[in-house]
Amino acid sequence: MDRREALASFGAITMAALADAAIAEEPMHDHEHHMHSAPKNQSLIDAASDCVQKGQACVAHCNTLLRDGDKDMAACQATAMQTIAICSALQQLANLNSPHLAKVAAAAADICKACEDECRKHDKKHQTCKDCGDSCAACYKQCKALAA
Fold it and tell me: Which of its termini does the chain have fewer beta carbons within 10 Å around, N or C?
């Protein structure tokens, strides 16, 4: 690249940056944002999100125990995996305020209750199971309230 090309490139880059800066300073009259409130189902979104997070930790913990030969954790792992699946969908549908949310919440309530019951069998011995069970109980309550 010779000197003339370098100066031309620099000039073009400078002009593009100035144009971007000018556009950024102009107010957007056709698309103003106002303070938006939290989503309609924020408590359900939070509960489902927590269930996914605690369920993932429970599955990882169960995997370790199963590898070490503790076959008692197979049912706990299976219910936690189902909970992760349904609560992920629940969270997404709640964020979208889907018309199908109440139906999915009813199914999620059943799955969360099953996971809570299974985790309670191990919660004295494993903190991860206690955390998952507590999270499932909270999500179950949110789901039942919505599905009612």
Answer: N
